[in-house]
Amino acid sequence: MHVNKRYEILSLIEHRWGITALNPMQQEVVNQNEDSDVILYSPTGSGKTMAFAISLVESLTDNGAGVQAVVIAPSRELALQTHDTLRTLAVGHKVTCFYGGHHASEERQSLSVIPSVVVATPGRLLDHVNHGRIDLKNVKMLVLDEFDKCLELGFEEEMRRLLRHIPHGARRMLTSATRLNPIPDYVAMRNAITLDYLMMTEDPASRMAVHAVYSPEADKLETLRRLLFTIEPARTIVFVGYRDAVARVAEYLVHHHVSAGVYHGALAQTDRETALALFRNDSMRVLVSTDLAARGLDIAGVQHIIHYHLPATVEAYTHRNGRTARVDAHGEIYVLLGPDESCPDFVTFNDELSLSVAPVRKSLLAPMTTLHIKAGKKEKISRGDIVGFIAKNSSDILQASDIGHIEVKDHYTLVAVPHRTAQALVNRLSHLPLKGHHTRITIIRR
């Protein structure tokens, strides 16, 4: 164990996330022998990313040794979230993220300085390797996050080819909330230690209440609206079975005064990032999504999960529900059932929720609005720059403490502000320089 390095990492974790102690699972992972491969099974929301991140950062040596560690994730969103965590903890090391859906040219440019850590989706990383843009021969640690998804049949050939470039001697750490047996031979595990916390930790389902909600009509839109106007206002994900239904459900909700957004695989990457940002920063109350949002998204404070369409499998049901009741929180699950629908055997209810004729509310609007500032990391903009810019020029409109969540992307920044102040801020700030440059500021309207 690297005692001084561990102390520095834990201090960063406390400063950045307010976490003062590792949970038992994380403690066991980071205390494993550095030469041991690890297979970690642990529930969604239990802190797997932090566990492998500590071990990975501890393994890094001096900069300039080439790519020392690789994290492979099955989705762009999970890759980006992991990248943000590692970039915070790997002080003094370059951490790069590769994923489909944005300009590969920017990734190629970023390789002018070889990173110590690469976080990537399989296809994009393989593309860089095949074109000789990156060399993985010095990798000492490989993490397959949500490896059950990474190693599915659809990824198999891609993963086979990619893992041929990872040294057999590199330490492997596999994490998942779903068991997968056996692990394919091409992963090249060596005397792996399995840490199974799926049964040893408190079942997240014990912190969830599951409610049956019966719709008198086969089209459950009106029942969904009444449900949202009845339950406590909080971050809510509505899961539907296919992409076309996402837009239809969201449009109905918006028409009926619900601040709702959409999320599915056919959206452009920037639209997906924006939808998640608005959901995280309270500019959107309800996220309507396919099962794409059932994995990898770490969004705090999701209180309600609504199954508008029934989940196809127990795994889909488990992962959907796993977006709430994370770590030690509680959540509410609602399963909408039409007149001719029968509930799968794997769903059990705590009760049946009867919706009143006159719901408690008539609207579900978000308290925050998001400003889009056309400048980001590539323009050397930081969160501190944004706070200073707003506070200096608009103290009569809002206080710095009123500014909500700020997300700085490569070429733009999203800033949550109280809804009542948004237009006044745009009017005031649009003509002022930000770090010496005039930049466009607009309101993201939903």
CATH classification class of the largest domain: Alpha Beta
Treating each run of at least 4 consecutive H or I residues as one helix, how many helices? Answer: 14
| CATH-level-4 superfamily name of the largest domain | P-loop containing nucleotide triphosphate hydrolases
Record field, number of beta strands: 20
Give a written overview of the molecule.
The protein is an alpha/beta fold and 446 residues long. The chain folds into 3 domains: 3-196, Rossmann fold; 204-352, 3-Layer(aba) Sandwich (Rossmann fold); 368-443, Alpha-Beta Plaits. 30% of the residues lie in helices and 20% in strands. The protein contains 14 helices and 20 strands. It has helices spanning 3-17, 24-30, 48-59, 76-89, 104-110, 122-130, 147-150, 156-163, 221-228, 243-255, 269-280, 314-321, 383-393, 422-429, and strands at residues 38-41, 69-72, 95-98, 117-120, 141-145, 171-176, 193-196, 208-214, 235-239, 260-263, 286-289, 302-307, 331-337, 351-352, 368-373, 406-408, 413-418, 433-434, 437-438, 441-443. It has a 7-stranded parallel beta sheet. Strands 10-11-9-12-13-8-14 form a 7-stranded parallel beta sheet, with helices on both faces. Helix 3 crosses helix 4. It starts with a helix and ends with a strand. The mean pLDDT is 90.
Provide the descriptors you would attach to this structure in a database record.
single chain; Rossmann fold; 3 domains; 7-stranded parallel beta sheet; 14 helices; 30% helix
SSE order and pairing:
Elements (H helix, E strand, L loop, with lengths): L2 H15 L6 H7 L7 E4 L6 H12 L9 E4 L3 H14 L5 E4 L5 H7 L6 E4 L1 H9 L10 E5 L1 H4 L5 H8 L7 E6 L16 E4 L11 E7 L6 H8 L6 E5 L3 H13 L4 E4 L5 H12 L5 E4 L12 E6 L6 H8 L9 E7 L13 E2 L15 E6 L9 H11 L12 E3 L4 E6 L3 H8 L3 E2 L2 E2 L2 E3 L3
Parallel strand pairs: 1-6, 1-7, 2-4, 2-5, 3-4, 5-6, 8-13, 8-14, 9-11, 9-12, 10-11, 12-13
Antiparallel strand pairs: 15-17, 15-20, 16-17, 18-19
